[in-house]
Each structure stands twice: as C-alpha cells, then as structure tokens.
Amino acid sequence: MSESSVSVDLNPKALQLRQSLSKSFFRKGITVAILSGICYGLYSAFLTAAMSKGIWADWYGDNLAGLSAFVIVYMLGALGSAVNDTSSAIWCLLIAASKGKLGDFFRSIKTKPGAVMIVCALFGGPIASTAYVVALQMAGSIVIPITALCPAIGAILGRILFKQELNGRMIVGVIVCVSASILIGSTGMGGDAPDGMLLGCLIALIAAFGWGIEGCIAGYGTTLIDFEIGITIRQTTSGLTNLIILIPLLSLIAGDISIAPQIIIGAVSSAPAMLFFAISGFFAVYAYSLWYKGNSMCGAPLGMACNGAYSFWGPFFCWLLLGVFMGQDGWMLQPKAWIAAVLMFVGICLIAFNPLELFRKKEAVQNVGA
Fold first, then answer.
1. Comparing 4-13, 29-38, 278-287, 312-321, which segment has the lowest mean pLDDT?
2. At what angle do helices 271-298 and 197-224 cross, to 10 degrees?
3. Distance from C-alpha of 145 to C-alpha of 315, rounded to nearest angstrom
C-alpha cells in the first residue's frame, strides 16, 4: 500500500477538510467573477455619464465647437475610451505601487507573457473599447448585451486558432447568443428608434470580436503573470496607444491634425467630466482584474459565464445612474431587450460549462460529507 493511501485512510478528516477548502475556494472564485461583471456594468454607466458632462455636453449637444460629424461620432468615442483607459492605468499603477509590485510591472513588460498582454491590449483597447464607446454613444445601453457575444466569438475563434473544444452544447449556446443579439437589435429597428441605433449595434459587434480575440490570447499571458500586473500592462498600453496613435490618426483622416491636441486638452481639463472618468477608470480596473482572478479560481469557462452577466448589469446601472438619478431620457429598455439580455446569459452559460456538472459536484460534496 502506498504512503499516500495510508495517509488518506488514516486521515479522513483531513481529506474532508481538503474537500471543504476546495469547495470554498471554488465558491469564492464564482463570487469574484460575478463581481467583475457588476464592476463592468458600473464602469459602463459612469463612462457614459462622463461623456455627458462638461465640455462633452457641448460637443454632443449644441456642437458649439463646430466639430464635424466624423469627429463627433468616431474621434470623441476614441477619446472617451482613451481617457477612461488612461484613468484606469493610473489607478493600476497606484495600486501596484502601494503593494510593492511596480518593479514587477516594468520587468514583466520585457518578457514574452508581457508582450502577449500588450497584444491583448491592442485588440481589447484601441479596437474593441473604442468600438464599444462609439456604439454606446450611438445606440445607448442596448449595445451592452450585444458585446456580451464575446464568449461565443471566443469559443469559435478558440476552435479555429487553437483547436479548442467546440461540442454540441457549446454550438447551441452560440446559437442562443446570436438569437439574443438579433432580438436586441430588433428593438432598434422601429420608427421611433434614434438615428444611428442600428449602426451602433453593428459597431458593437466589432467590440465583441475584439474582446473575443483578446480572451483567446490573454489566457496564456495571465497564467505566467500576476493578474494585477497583467491588467496594469493592458490598461497602460490601451490608454497610451489611444492617446498617442489612434486619436492623431483619426485627426489625419478628418483632415486636420490639430484637432487631436484640441480635444485631448479640452477633455482632460473638463473637471465635471474627469470626476466621472476617475470613477469609471476605477471600476474598469476591477472589471478586468477580477475577471482574470475569477477565471483562475473557478476555471475560465465558469468565470467567463459569471462575468458575462454584465449583459444585464450594464443596462441596469445605465438605467439606474443615467435614467433614475441623473434624469436623462432614453435609458428605459423595452421588455424584450431585458428578456434578450437574460437569454444571452443563458447562452453564455451553455458555452462556458455544462450546467449538469454543478449538480454532480453538489452530489459529490454531499457524498464526501456523508
């Protein structure tokens, strides 16, 4: 008889304690992943609020600055994403410094996993986050459940790029998610829909693809880097890339490079807006960092499903903050949009894990306890 067998036979209480600790760790992972989705909803709400305050109200309201339609729709969307991610990066650096991890941040940038996180930031920041902000401004919180298609897209891309499993259950989940996104998009096709809502929903799909690609790539990087350092690399790369490269590039496309410094200076010097950007940046830190931490504790599939609940939390907090507390019109969602958000979450769960496994684990734990 092996030494390990003797140990197990002689210490049944130790085995039971180990099972209990594992169960507790698993439950904490689920809680952390759920909190990441809640933080994502809060970050979305405060970001949208920020882009309705101070100089942003002039840009989007009476257009006192005389900006073109291209600048208002696309450059200001990129600017909002840039300011939020830069604010988030500052929070990340402060948190890392307070925990004595700032040196790890600079060392990790030079490593291969650090380079992977930089690539993730490029897909998730300048591409996905900018598309997300543009879509929010054009169509409102209705786009949030559409961006929650990223787990479905990630599952498909994972199969194509990395030969990951894509079984019948997961395919059903993908179909459910796509059906839910179509249902959500249909709410913006009526005669009373605001201008640009359908285009906003289509742009939201770009965000979903960007985050789906990021999710495929990020798994490797975050297995070798502390999740807080990984998020710091991501947010810093995203914020600086948006400010230094993307916005000036869009200025050139608009035909006037001087627009870039003009709107950047205007945005960062607008105190009413920056207060909300500081809050949105803070929640963005935990929207992403708790997602990675939750994945490591309860497994990426289940963590992805719990985080995907932001398809509900996003519209909910936008309605609560912008509609109820700030009294802005247009944030009340139609009933079928809420139903579609719940349907989207069901589809994400089917992609992420087999629901029957939860009952099997519960039975196994009960048998051990008996």
1. 4-13
2. 50
3. 8
Q: pLDDT averaged over the chain?
A: 78
Instruction: Compute the distance between CA of residue 147 and CA of residue 158 in angstroms, rounded to an integer.
Output: 18
Distance CA 351, CA 238 (A): 28
Confidence of residue 285 (pLDDT cuts 50, 70, 90): very high
Distance CA 201, CA 140 (A): 9
Inter-residue contact 231 to 289 (CB < 8 Å)? yes
CB atoms within 10 A of CB 24: 10
313 Cβ contact list (under 8 Å, min separation 6): 37, 38, 40, 41, 42
41 and 148 Cβ atoms separated by less than 8 Å: no
What gap in Å lies between CA 250 and CA 233, rounded to an integer?
24
Q: Is the dihedral of CA 238, 39, 135, 254 positive or negative?
A: negative
The amino acid sitting at 221 is: G
- Mean local confidence (pLDDT), 30-40: 84
Degrees to nearest 5, angle at CA 45 with 219 and 96: 45
Instruction: With CA atoms as reference, report the closest residue to 88 among 273, 283, 249.
Output: 283
Cβ burial of 103 (10 Å; 0-12, 13-18, 19+) is exposed
Position 262 confidence tier, pLDDT thresholds 50, 70, 90: very high
| Per-residue model confidence (pLDDT) at position 184 | 65
- At 177-223, the pLDDT tens digits run 767 766 765 655 444 455 667 788 888 888 888 877 776 676 566 66
Please state the pTM of the whole predicted model: 0.76
Task: Say how far apart CA 289 and CA 295 lie, in whole Å.
Answer: 10
Q: Which residues of 309-345 are buried (b: 16+ CB within 10 A; e: fewer)?
A: bbbbbbbbbbbebbbeeeebeebebeeebbebbebbb
Instruction: Please work out, in degrees rounded to the nearest 5, the angle formed at the alpha carbon of residue 66 by the alpha carbons of 59 and 259.
Output: 80
DSSP secondary structure, 162-179, as one string: H-----HHHHHHHHHHHH
> What is the spatial distance between Cα 87 and Cα 69, in angstroms, rounded to a whole number?
26
